[in-house]
Amino acid sequence: MCAEEAVEKNEREHEEEFYRGTAPCQTRGRGRMSSSSHLRRKTLSLVVLMVSCSASGDLLLKKGMAAIGAVHLHGHDLAATFLRTVTSGTIWAGIACLIGAFVIYMMLLSWADYSYVLPGNSLGYAVVALLGVTLLGEHVTLMRWTGVALICSGVALVGQTEPRTTKKVIRGTQ
């Protein structure tokens, strides 16, 4: 057996331990934690953090752009607006939050199903609507709240499923 085959065999064995819930990283205290429970808690925690970072970033961008004023697509006005935008600390703080959300999103995609993570990210629509009302004084219509409720209902349904339903494909195996 060559070194590459040995590595692949080791990866397959670790993956099997993970699905059985017997991987060393899945043991806690008095007994073994099921891999499903550990994965679900880890995934949901990071989805909440991702949504929080994303909503915070969006809120900061809104506040920053409101302070800058309306953007007009005319030569001199556009250049001046661009300069005010790239020198705004609020805009940069919003960008940093959005980059943080993106990094967390990539982490989630490394172990959880795309069809689980992306709907979880949709909770941001509810958070943004609440922040718009409470912090920005926006009026959200009944139609918008109904849409937000439908989105949250869909996310709740997806949240009842396992974060990972497909086995990880290891190079050279199928």
Outline of this structure?
By secondary structure, this protein is mainly α. The chain has seven helices and two strands; from the N terminus they run αββαααααα.
Helix and strand pattern: HEEHHHHHH
The radius of gyration is: 22 Å
What structural class is derived from the secondary structure elements?
mainly alpha
Q: Strand portion, in percent? A: under 5%
Helix content: over 70%
What does this structure look like?
By secondary structure, the chain is mainly α. Helices cover 72% and strands 2% of the residues. The protein is built from 7 helices and 2 strands. The chain has helices spanning 3-20, 35-68, 75-86, 89-111, 114-121, 123-134, 142-159, and strands at 27-28, 31-32. A two-stranded antiparallel ribbon has the order 1-2. A hairpin with a 2-residue loop joins strand 1 (27-28) and strand 2. It is flat. The chain starts with a helix and ends in a 15-residue tail after the last helix.
Describe the protein's topology.
Blueprint: H1 3-20, E1 27-28, E2 31-32, H2 35-68, H3 75-86, H4 89-111, H5 114-121, H6 123-134, H7 142-159
Helix pairs in contact: 2-4, 2-6, 5-7, 6-7
Can you tag this structure with a few keywords?
7 helices; 174 residues; flat; mainly alpha; single chain
